[in-house]
Every structure is written in C-alpha cells, then in structure tokens.
C-alpha cells in the first residue's frame, strides 16, 4: 500500500485539531482570561530529549484555529532528527492564544514524534537490507492516519489503513470460509483488485496460499529456517511478510531471510511521548 503524505491529510489534520481543542478548551480557557486580552507574547518549544520530529502541520493548525494572529516559526521539519534541548519552533502572538493552544499543540507533537522516533530506531536496525517495515492497525482511536504518517517520517512504511482497503485473512476467517483456497477465491470475487493477504502458520499452508493466488502471505511466527525456505518456495510469486514475536534482537536476522515485509505493532502501540517544554516570554 502507498505511504500517506501530508497532501492526503489536510482535512484530517483540521478535524483532529478541532476535536482536540473542543476537548481541551470547551466553552473557554478561564485561566487564560487572567491575562489582558491585548497582551502580546513570544514563546519557544524545546525537546528535552533526542527525537525524530513529526507533527508540524498539527501544531500549525492548532494555533491557526485558536487565533490566526499567532505566527509559528519552525526550526525543524518532519522527519528531521533533533537533539536534546534543541528549539523546535518559536511563536509570537496574543499571550492568551499561546497558552490556550499550548497543550493541544504539544500533545500532537510529542505523540507523533514518539512514533517517528521509534520507527527511526527500527529502520536503523534493518539498514542495508531490502525489507520494508510495516505498521499495523494498533493505533490510538481517532489518530490512525496521523500515526501512520508519523511512521513514514521515521523511515518505515504503511500497511493497510483499515478493514476496507485490503484483505488480511487470518485463522478465524480461514476456518469460517472452509479453507485457504476458499477464502482467497472469495476475496477475489468480493472486491476484485483489492490486495489479498493471508496468514499462514506452516510451509504447507504457504503452498496452499500461493496456489490460491494470494498477493501477500503473512508468515506467522515461523522459524528462521522456515522463513528462508518460504522465500525459496515463493520465488517471487507473492510478497512475504513476517509477523509475530519480533524483537529488537531478532529483527535484523528476520530481515536477512529475504522476506519482503516485517509488520510491527510496536511502531505505533508501545510509544512513550517525547518530553517537550514551552517557555513563554511576555
């Protein structure tokens, strides 16, 4: 599946930000009202730790929606690496607006940068191999597209977006359909042209999937020896994706088996927000 780009996300970003501001500001920021409405201020946002940055467009949208008089000056771009204590962006505008937008802006930036940073780490582990690391549907509700964009900023790749754009046939689907061949054939009839991926747990099931015409075969927790054999058996007839039980220590050796893809829920699921701080000057 093609990777998401910012051009795909303009309406999504605006919607993400509207929901975040409604959740946080609600009927009005009563604390910001302590500051005179005419008071102007500047601010800068730093990262307290090294990180791969993602989320600039969400930050821009936050302050644009809070008060279009706020100007944002970026010192980094999405996908760039920042060092600890580095200034990421600076702000100028009404003090109330800077403070009201602070939390929503930093929430987006710290979360999406966390995803990009983790992905950058994993991409580095397989550098020099031909494998593509794929994300999954294990994302925060309401932020799937944002997180999947962050994956690309960290040097990894997007799998299917949801349940609608590609088939991923797993054990229960196979059982309900009566077998691998039946499941693949039914998928081709239901939505011709949609990618059909099927999960297998043995080399025998791989042969069935290949004979049925699957586009992608997911190798679920196969041994390294069986993965290498799967690459030989497949010989380019389908793409192969390794999944399940993959760790930092096993990632590279799995990549070196020759599989096309490795999918990792941890790219979006097990992230820790990057530590950011905004410093205001009146």
How does this structure look, described?
- It is a single chain.
- α5 crosses α6 (180-190).
- This protein has helices at 10-24, 56-66, 95-125, 144-153, 171-177, 180-190, 203-212, 224-234, 248-255, 266-269; strands at residues 40-47, 51-52, 71-74, 81-82, 87-94, 132-134, 167-169, 196-200, 216-220, 239-243, 261-263, 276-281.
- The radius of gyration is 23 Å and the shape is elongated.
- The chain is an alpha/beta fold and 282 residues long.
- Helices cover 42% and strands 19% of the residues.
- The strands form 3 sheets. Strands 6-11-10-9-8-7 form a 6-stranded parallel beta sheet. It has a 4-stranded antiparallel beta sheet with strand order 3-5-1-12, covered by helices on one side.
